[in-house]
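Practice problem 4.
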């Protein structure tokens, strides 16, 4: 796999994962592995490993805003990617800076709500603010089936309802929606992309493994990295999906629960 020679800049606004498999740690690795440059604004510090999340510590709103302004006023960004925004206040802070300094920068929204372990990562009711304030600003929103169901109210059980949810997210204002199918049953995983170009279904064999911690963060950041380097959205989604599929296949097997994927395989190859 090759990336453009233009080293696109991605500002990641998300939480920190002490286990390194998800959050900004996964984001930085994915963006960098595919040739981009990652800058960050940390929204929360989580205490977690492959077995679950045992603590969430919010970063003060002023510090989140200062991090974003510091990056945007100097280094700049070709794409902004949001991940874990744990409260209404955090979302409103981030949206305020986006309105102030980044109205024209494409936004990739990964609406993180629940960790792979099943632990909640956001306050109750936060999905309403994500739906009302972040989704309408998104160049792309990348929920899994559970998150898409919470955002749209559509019960997602198969490909048809995946497509309906992706269309509903576009109706909410997102330019494009990628509804992932990894949480659904079946021998293959189908991701549905609905954009101005229409419908695209990307299907790959399911890998039987518990080591899927951080796959949502990784995919969204891989797409953001490729978009920042000038790839079209369909190209970025397809290449990022292939990258993640191989990263899952090569997972190092760390921990006794849901372990991380191998973000850096593409660099070694």
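Answer key:
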């Amino acid at each position: 796999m090759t990336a453009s020679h233009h080293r696109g800049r991605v500002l990641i606004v998300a939480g920190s994962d002490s286990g390194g498999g998800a959050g900004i740690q996964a984001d930085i690795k994915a963006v960098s592995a595919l040739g981009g440059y990652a800058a960050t604004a940390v929204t929360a510090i989580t205490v977690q490993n492959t077995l679950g999340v045992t603590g969430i510590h919010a970063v003060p709103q002023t510090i989140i805003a200062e991090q974003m302004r510091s990056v945007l006023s100097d280094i700049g960004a070709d794409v902004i990617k949001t991940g874990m925004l744990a409260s209404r206040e955090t979302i409103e802070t981030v949206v305020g800076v986006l309105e102030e300094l980044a109205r024209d920068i494409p936004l990739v929204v990964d609406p993180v709500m629940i960790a792979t372990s099943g632990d909640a990562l956001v306050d109750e009711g936060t999905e309403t603010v994500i739906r009302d304030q972040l989704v309408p600003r998104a160049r792309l929103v990348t929920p899994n089936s559970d998150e898409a169901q919470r955002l749209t109210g559509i019960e997602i059980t198969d490909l048809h309802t995946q497509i309906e949810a992706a269309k509903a997210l576009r109706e909410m204002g997102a330019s494009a929606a990628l509804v992932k199918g990894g949480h659904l049953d079946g021998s293959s995983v189908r991701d549905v992309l609905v954009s101005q170009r229409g419908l695209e279904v990307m299907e790959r064999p399911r890998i039987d493994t518990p080591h899927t911690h951080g796959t949502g963060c990784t995919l969204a950041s891989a797409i953001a990295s490729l978009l920042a380097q000038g790839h079209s959205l369909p190209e970025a989604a397809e290449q990022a999906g292939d990258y993640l599929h191989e990263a899952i296949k090569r997972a190092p097997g760390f921990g006794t629960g849901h372990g991380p994927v191998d973000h850096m395989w593409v660099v070694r190859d």
